[in-house]
Amino acid sequence: MLRAEDGGHDPAPFAAPSLDDLEGLLSGLRDGGLPVALVVDGDVDDVPAGVQELAYRVVQEGTTNVLRHAGTPLTVAQVVRSGNTLVVRVCNERASQLDSRPGPGGGRGLAGLRERAAAAGGTLSAEPTPSGGFELCATLPLAGAA
User: Fold this and answer.
1) Phi and psi at residue 141, to the nearest 5°
2) Partner residues linked to 21 by β-bridges
3) pLDDT tens string 27-69
4) Other Cβ atoms within 10 Å of 139 Cβ, number
5) Ramachandran angles phi, psi of 140, nearest 5°
6) Bridge partner list, 28
């Protein structure tokens, strides 16, 4: 049960995840056996907080899906800023050995991310790659985002 801090004030709410939190997320996945690299290209310091949280969720969902469906193939999470657009990709190679890890579902997964991307004026695609891997890609506008 959550309770008020001394003095009767409510504790500060948990901060939403941001692009700064991606390395921590991926570090935990690496510790769990997923070889994953993070590539950030462009200045992302002034990306609006809502877009940063959505970008984090794309990487989180993409890497979770890699573990759940492909095991532990080489995976790259990429965040690229080009002008007023942020592109977030999670791409994995073909699994050399299927070592998937089924886990609890229950979330909205790709459908929920697709809705959130559309609500932000962006798009989300999820599709197999020609090499037998999989790519999750969100394109998110920065202009007008809160």
Assistant:
1) -75, 145
2) none
3) 999 998 999 999 999 999 999 999 999 999 999 999 999 998 8
4) 17
5) -125, 125
6) none
